[in-house]
Fold this sequence. Notes:
With 199 residues, the protein is mostly helical. It has helices at residues 3-8, 24-30, 34-58, 67-89, 91-97, 108-116, 123-153, 175-198, and strands at residues 155-156, 159-160. Strands 1-2 form a two-stranded antiparallel sheet.
Amino acid sequence: MSAWKEFSKGFYKQNPVFKQALGLCPTLAVSSSVKNGLGMGLAATFVLICSNALISLIRKSVPNRIRIPIYIVVIATFVTIVDLSMAGFVPDLHKSLGIFVPLIVVNCIILGRAEAFAGKNNVGLAFLDGVGMGLGFTLALCLIGSIREIVGSGSLLGIPVLSASYEPVLMMILPPGAFLTIGFVLGFFNWIENRKKAN
């Protein structure tokens, strides 16, 4: 498979959120704004890239019986780096994301890519897979976050984008809004797929 295909598959064809329905817990929890979605997405992308590359590098020397615990230790190491870095450099964002940064350790996207891809491919392809899947996850979070933020508060990244007469739909920045938004977005992507098949 070409390097471009490995890199680009995470954007749409195998998008972790919209195509594989992975990582829905942080997607629903932190996507109330673009800022939160971007922060969470970039944190997960860093962990994906680093853990994929390291797991691919050590894959031949890891005994099959203990590969999952070793993968989790590798992932937890990079999550700790991200967690402490965010706490030190962007404390407001770290506080806003809360427990979901440390929970990247058990995010099924990260472990799934380690098990299904990085443990079976070379470092270059594993790196590209990590970048592509991470950016696809980030784009999904930002899309959901932007819809919720615009409809729920009339602003985007804190900047008003709708007229002063717009009445914000408060529910969209609350937990039910996350379910509604992801449902509508998934429905839209399914509609596109059905249109493609029909043509």
